[in-house]
Amino acid sequence: MYMLHGYPGHPAALMRWMAPMLDTAFERGAAPFIVAIPDGNSTAHSDTEWADSVDGRTLVESSLIRKILPAVEGPVPLPAGMRAIGGFSIGGYGAANLALRHPDLFGQVVSVSGYFHVDDTSGMFAKRRAAIAANTPDAMVRAASGRRFLLIEAKNESEPLVAGQAADFASRLRACHCADDVELRMERGDHNVDFVGAQTPAIVAFLDAGWRRPVQ
């Protein structure tokens, strides 16, 4: 699983909350899996959207796909059914966006406190309509065919950008009858990394039910 942090954020903070919950879930019988948390920060654009900027100065998407996946998986790439992508906040947006932009790569998608439209505060897409359209999960749901989605939002969500987004995106996915499975969870908590930690057992259970190994 590739887990994308929020903004501002960094990998260590996210893993600090998730690691003990992952250990407990694996000890209780869930199939163990690797969690890789890449760094999505950039000096050129502070809020990277987990994307490539139109000016070419920030290439987070390209780095994840071309460098990080091979570094984690080695010379023989995993099939999509054995690879998931998830994220918190802007990472939740990034996870959905990258999964729909690269449907051949990710079989399962987890968005925790995410949103599904562009919120480009750092000019990654330079207000270009084509770039925005190509990075708007709300408008890309048909690419969800064959994927499984877990959408989690806090009942006390304090970020207007996020509040109501999980339910709306779930409705879009269900209306197009595209995704293999769409699970929506509204849980107690607020917009912070400890909420991600609290939801880690649900994330593990969801993924555990959906890993798909290739036919031998």
Structure notes:
With 216 residues, the protein is α/β, with parallel strands linked by helices. 35% of the residues lie in helices and 12% in strands. The protein contains six helices and five strands. A five-stranded parallel beta sheet has the order 1-2-3-4-5, sandwiched between helices. The radius of gyration is 16 Å and the shape is globular. The mean pLDDT is 96.
Order of helices and strands, N to C?
EHHEHEHEHEH
Helix content: 25-40%
Q: Runs with pLDDT <50, length 5+?
A: none
The shape, in one word, is globular
* Multimerization status: single chain
The number of helical segments is 6
Rounded radius of gyration (Å): 16 Å
> Overall pLDDT, averaged?
96
Distance N to C terminus: 22 Å
Q: Taking strands numbered 1, 2, ... along the chain, how are they ordered across the largest sheet? A: 1-2-3-4-5
Give me a quick take on this structure.
With 216 residues, the chain is an alpha/beta fold. Helix content is 35%, strand content 12%.
Provide the descriptors you would attach to this structure in a database record:
216 residues; five-stranded parallel sheet; 6 helices; globular
Any chance you could write out the topology, listing elements then pairs?
Layout: E1 2-4, H1 11-27, H2 60-73, E2 84-88, H3 90-101, E3 108-112, H4 129-133, E4 148-154, H5 165-175, E5 181-187, H6 193-208
